[in-house]
Amino acid sequence: MTSAITAATANADLAALIRTIPDFPKPGIQFRDITTLLLDAKGFQASIERLAAAAPDGIDLIAGIEARGFIFSSALAAHMGKGLVLIRKDGKLPGATIGVDYTLEYGTDRVVMHEDACVPGQRVLLVDDLIATGGTALAAVRLLRQAGAEVIGAHFVIDLPDLGGADRLRAEGVAVTTLVAFEGD
Fold it and tell me: Which part of the chain is the Phosphoribosyltransferase domain (predicted)?
């Protein structure tokens, strides 16, 4: 399920549950709203089961990216019986953290995790709701690798392939799985 064509065909039922809100958060953007998928218990359950079915063997931990990624990563971790690593924006976690800065269109941001969230050699699956340009996901991969983890894949419910994020992750050696894809931004 790594290609947009395969994902769109295999998961048309899930794509139909995702609402598009035009011009949010600014004119020209087609916001892909997963709240309608989450409201449908069978659709939400199916998305977790399909993400789990596509997961590689040997996962030690699931890592979720703030904020909507926490929904899918938590459910997937519970479904698979794995621990959960929280990757958050700076200043949101108590205790000692490690972090990675990354570039945005107009500035920079930082993602962090607890310095003891994973140990070197652990095999981690990264999960988020959507992959667009890939900046945050790529920063999360670098953060996990900085801690010595092996990122064995990244799973997303939605891919916006025209924005190139999944390809950026693949270029960094990360296998990407998505359930649905929407053309455009």
Answer: 43-161
68 is catalytic: yes
Span 115-133, pLDDT tens digits: 999 999 999 999 999 999 9
Marked catalytic residue, from 32, 68, 88, 168? 68
Active site residue 172: no
The per-type count for the chain, helices as H runs and strands as E runs, is: 7, 9
CATH 3.40.50.2020 is the classification of domain 4-181: yes
Break the chain into its structural domains and give their ranges: 4-181
Whether 7 contacts 178, CB under 8 Å: yes
